[in-house]
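Dear all,

This email documents one entry for the complex benchmark we are building for the journal club exercise. For each entry we list the sequence lines for every component of the assembly. Then comes the predicted three-dimensional structure of the complex as a token string, followed by one or two observations. Please use this as the template for your own entries, and keep the labels exactly as they appear.
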Amino acid sequence: MTTEDLKAFEDKIYAFVGREVCPPTPAKDAVNGAMIRQWAEVIGDTNPAYTDDTWAATSSRGQTIAPPAMMYVWGQEGFAVTTGRAPDAQSELVNLFNEHGYSGVLGTNVKQEYFKETSPGDTVVMAMTIDNISERKTTGRGPGYFFETLATFTNQHGEKIGTQRFKVLKFIPQEQPAAAASEETLQVPTRIASPRGHDNKWWWEACDAGKVLIQRCKNCQTLRHPPRPMCGECQSMEWDSIESTLEGEILSHTQIHHPKIPGYQYPLICAVIKLAEGTNFMANVVGCEPSDVHIGMKVKGVVEQVDEKTMLPQFYPA
Amino acid sequence: MSDYKTLTCADVSIGDKLPPLDIDITTGLVVCGALATRDFEPVHHNKAAAVATGLPDVFMNILTSQGLMTRFATDWSGPEAVVKSLDLRLGAPNVPGMVMTMTGEVTAIDSDNSTVDIAVVGENNIWGMHMQGSVQLALPQEA
């Protein structure tokens, strides 16, 4: 892009500063207890100021309030956005950026200020403008511009209840060198891969196929686990295997708290389990509260896919 | 008045730590959080839409993060506190399977206006900082 082209582009985008994204628009529903309760349940917020009418009546407010972080929720458009949004000044600006190669988008900051609380029955009225657009910046994501929308919230009496500033980076996505790869290229980690060597690869491959095998000495029939080349009883190196029924009993257990290793679900319970066949086996116990796990507990194993790459026997209460 | 206690400025000192809070990021929390905030953007409830943007699964919407941040602050302060502002910088997405640990610390106290500023960080165990910012609360004047 030449200097003149850049100037022409910037003239176009800066013309959006001050433009209205939406005029003052009352929310479709008044602030109400049902939506507040649903929000409080999901967020896990037990604040009685939101959901306990009896407490709220005796509080300094005299009534319940909406959680302040719901201020923007009341004016949301709803399910229609699953099939796209109606064009407005913001989408026009975004399209203009996209057409000029600034197709990357990243919400970077959101700041809300609250001037007055709302209670059931109040109507939240929201208006939004494009407040400012930065000069061209070089960012870790690529060259781009920050634009900020300003939403202003009032109630049905015209009293100002709050503002929201939302800053978005529109940038030209860069080919990222491996070391600087962005989050987008990261994957949720899988569990630590099983080390597969000459003496135990067969065992893990059976596990991949959904079976837990126990090695058996061909000479004296003694079972052994984990896999190893020689029988500890008769020193024979001839062996075959049997399939475990995965019925067992907990001999010992512990709960791993720290460090939390990426790819594992916590609470993470590790147990030594005596299998019905007689050998001991170390595995995770799942499907119950950590406090329910005890020595002598009967468990039953199932070989399950625990992440994208890993099959592992998991033991449940029998 | 009730069993609920609310802190006043006299109860608080700069450097006070808030009790840490672990949030399990589940598909339920991501999807239901999006719906409870009327955010029907497909990337928050439809895995295929999220995968198309380069992420492994649906991810938490901003309004849920904002809710968790105010909850974290008022869990500590008590219910008579009034949230005055919430300022957050967005970092790595919260995706099901992660655990986000929230920590916070009192950074400023204005006794004349009875407000406290709390710096809050929400960090997930896989990608690190999910959100970082501050909450300002107005605490009740002492009786």
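Observations: Chain B has a mean pLDDT of 94. Chain B has three helices and five strands.
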